[in-house]
Amino acid sequence: MKIEEYIRSLPQSIITGEDVELRDDVLREIFRFASLDTNDTFYHLGCSNGNGIVIALEEFGVKKAVGIDSNPKKILYARKKLEEKKLHNGSLRCEDLLQSDISDASVVFFWFVDEHIIEKMIPKFLQLKNGSRIITIWGPLTSFLSDKVDFPYVLNVVPFKKAKDLREQLLAIFDTDCIDFATAWEFAERYSNAIGSKEAGNDRFLTILQSLVIWINAKNLGIACGDEIPQPVKNYISILRTFFNIEVEHLLNRNLP
Question: What pLDDT is recorded for position 257?
């Protein structure tokens, strides 16, 4: 099957990240990366178990923290956690983030990969006060250049800087003139380590998929190093086809914008 078919076969909660719980140490890395401090009003969109809200309040001393999630069970669990810890400057909302008021946010953690959600949230982000920071994982907000990168963590600061094209975005993220497979693998591995599944084997599989996607996108955009397909790329394409029945070769013929 083509990789797109494989991805569609996965549970939607995995694709959206709904059932992916970031480790506490990763949340701390993200908050340090964003320079979260006592002057901030912090919003976690898709807050899940509420650990990010607790850490932002207890360890980074934000003046206010708001978690938003559409899953009522997770919101209930997170509320109990705040009550037990008597964190009165934290709150949880069970609502659609597209309808949520985030107008007082100075820092927003926004980890969504659905392009439709991203596109609808950007106007909300643009209305935040200048200097407000939006934290994402893996890539910058659509059509904008990142202000700070510690891959896979990416920061956009209001007002956003418009990117000329996807090519400029990628080169800014990878901070290089061209992307070889070693670079693609390193960045894919950073992503796998950050989202930290419990099964190391799954992390390895994710790293292979992500590294191929990074390199192939670079190739199609004309920013891969060299004209030839590297041997590791050929090897992993063959492994995916032979052992997992997943085809990715057709992506090399795709013309990306």
Answer: 42
User: Could you tell me which residue, 203 or 72, shows the higher pLDDT?
Assistant: 72
Q: Which CATH class is domain 12-163?
A: alpha beta
Task: Determine how β-strand 161-162 pairs with β-strand 144-145.
Answer: antiparallel
In one-letter notation, the amino acid at residue 241 is: R
What's the pLDDT score for residue 115? 83
Q: How far is CA 130 from CA 77, 134, 148, 241, in A?
A: 34, 11, 16, 48
Residue-level length of the chain: 257
The burial of 139, by beta-carbon neighbours within 10 Å (0-12 exposed, 13-18 middle, 19 or more buried), is given as middle
Q: How does 81-103 read in b/e, with b if 16+ C-beta sit within 10 Å? A: bbeeeebeebebbbeebeebebe
Domain residue ranges in the chain: 12-163, 178-253
Distance between CA atoms of residues 139 and 151, nearest Å: 9
The token pair that represents 107 in the structure block = 């820092």
Amino acid letter for position 252: L
What single-letter amino acid sits at 31?
F
**pLDDT beyond 70 at 40:** yes
